Amino acid sequence: MTLHPQRHALPHAPPGGVSAPFWAGCAAGELRFQRCRSCAAVQFPPAEHCRECLAADLVWAVSSGRGTVYSWTVVHRPATPAFEVPYAPAIVDVAEGFQLLTNLVDVAPEEIAAGMPVAVRFVAVPGDLTLPYFAPAPSEETPP
Amino acid sequence: MPGTDRRAAIVGVANTAQARRLEGATSRGLAVSAALAALDDAGLTLDDVDGISGDATAAALLYDLRLGPAWLGRQFGIQAVTEAVHAVEAGEADVVLVVAAEAGGYTDRSATAPWTRPENEFVVPFGLFTAAEFALIARRHMITYGTTPEQLARVAATIRTHGSTTPGAVYAGRGTVTAEDVLASRMIADPFHLLDCSMTSEGGCALVIAAADRLADAPQPPVHVLGSGSDHMGPSYRNPPAWDLAGRRGGPVLGRIGERAVGRAFASAGLDRADVDVLELYDPFSFEVIRQLEAFGFCGPGEGGPYVEDGHIELTGRTPVTTDGGTMAFSHAGAAPQMFQRVVRGVQQLRGQAGPNQVPGARVALCSGGGAGALFTTVVLLGTDRA
């Protein structure tokens, strides 16, 4: 059995002003994160100030969308009936150096492992929402 | 400064009836019952009370009980107890009622309890709720140290068995629960089976904290707050609960939250781990007990699994844990009452009122609240003797 994206309208809290570019990025197929122009730190979730140096000089950058599984769970009793089970909340270490909470898809629960390479897969779910799910990464292309 | 040598103590405690559902009960009705029972336990009346705390409804309760003008606490859980102690010791109040109750708030059983579901934009659409948040923490420990589902199940079995022999527990009389029972229950959020998780229930509880000079006629021996501590890493259920989350000063990471708090508590009490007779640890999920045993220094990093497997958290063990069944078998009534019930139980142990699960001669209890999945851990050290 393979985990799949949710198929029904999901609960979604309204984006805060500072995070609107992130959700716009998801809709455009880009996994966006903030980078500090003062100290070069990267951060997620977004904020008004850099969590390292407190500079307000943050710019949005686009991630490669690649990462590895840091931690995960497979849920069999949903938070609300909106969710079909099983689904797999996970924390992904994204290549650019930030962590993201997501759901893993296109993988069987028993195949999930710590450090497993994954890549973002944007899915438009009912309810005008595009979510950054993560799926097992296709093997790296070998240069000719 | 006047009042700085004043001491406060816990002089009254009470639990109302606790049940999965208390038909016809309301949160307000239970709060009033709990308050009056705790005052009766303390040998005091409402006319003695000049402070109140407990949860967001405390101000309304202050008005409806006509306690004003009175001190009003704003903290949550264990910190509400220590805040009340500090208020009395600072001379801001003489007798503070800490009370909370919950009934009728959880009716849609197709969803998890309302207080377990975050509403943040980065969390909600991914179906997070408390069991999943705490599972993300437990998983990192399993990855790093090889902690097993059997070890988690041993925690749940031990605590649930304590609840079985506790009069008034929601799951009183259910008999011994084994690790096999836990592992055979349905999966909720891997690695947590149903019996690895707290229940949801209804009920109320209250504590009375009073200045030492009000204790002359107290029917029960006072229980003293010897030390306390609080560790927070941010708001609950908004950011990824990553074991390795660290602050700018270095120090313990999220997975070790509570290490700093308990260090502060022991330092102010002038005590150490060996002085503690009973651990009333907050038990939202089985793994959280293993994590606290490590963070609090009762065993080394990664040793929590073997420690519980060796029986050290049983009533006859080195450090008996959560002796009334905790949120797994005693009660898990709403967001606020469950956070006080570890302190209520600690007081019962130190008074010798813990019935069949009494730890003989208990003089020092460590009580906790919170957890790494929720990004905070708070502790209080209680004693029969003053620090």
TrEMBL record, chain A:
The source organism is Trujillonella endophytica
What domain of life? Bacteria
**ChsH2 C-terminal OB-fold domain mapped to chain residues:** 60-123
Q: Which Pfam families match?
A: OB_ChsH2_C, zf-ChsH2
Limits of the ChsH2 rubredoxin-like zinc ribbon domain: 23-58
* UniProt feature coiled coil, ranges: none
- Official protein name in the record: DUF35 domain-containing protein
Automatic annotation (TrEMBL), chain B:
What the entry lists under Gene3D superfamilies is as follows:
3.40.47.10
For this protein, the record's CDD domains field holds: SCP-x_thiolase (cd00829)
Q: Which residues form the Thiolase C-terminal domain?
A: 260-383
Q: Which GO terms describe its molecular function?
A: acyltransferase activity, transferring groups other than amino-acyl groups
Q: Does the keyword Transferase apply?
A: yes
Keywords, alphabetical: Transferase
Q: One matching Pfam family, short form?
A: Thiolase_C_1
Quote the PANTHER family the UniProt record gives: ACETYL-COA C-ACETYLTRANSFERASE, NON-SPECIFIC LIPID-TRANSFER PROTEIN-LIKE 2
Record protein name field: Acetyl-CoA acetyltransferase
Which species is listed as the source?
Answer: Trujillonella endophytica
